[in-house]
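Researcher: Next entry in the queue.
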Amino acid sequence: MTFIAYASVLIMNEKNDILLVSEKKEVNYNKLNLPGGHLEIGESPMEWAIRETFEETGVDVELTGLIGVYLGRTKTSFHYIFIGRIKHGTPLWNPNEVLKAEWYSIDELKKM
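Model: Structure for this entry, 112 residues:
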């Protein structure tokens, strides 16, 4: 059995809004997600979480903790979810990677 590894970063601003991306890939088109993506050979989970976040949002992040490691719904993937903060940059999405990257308040997310 082949496993796929993912890593994502939960980033909050000073108002406790959460940075989310709208997925571009057909299977998850326009679904909100934390910035992140797939493992590339030779990277640690922390390195790929930082790289994928930069590729999707244009911000450099510092990881401040690990929220958890979760088994995917199909049980053929696992997902590292880190918490981090922006070191440099303002979120601007990469149109080659995602549809958009925006801040969402907890109240907005509860209403969705």
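Model: The CA atoms of residues 4 and 76 lie 6 Å apart.
Researcher: Noted, moving on.
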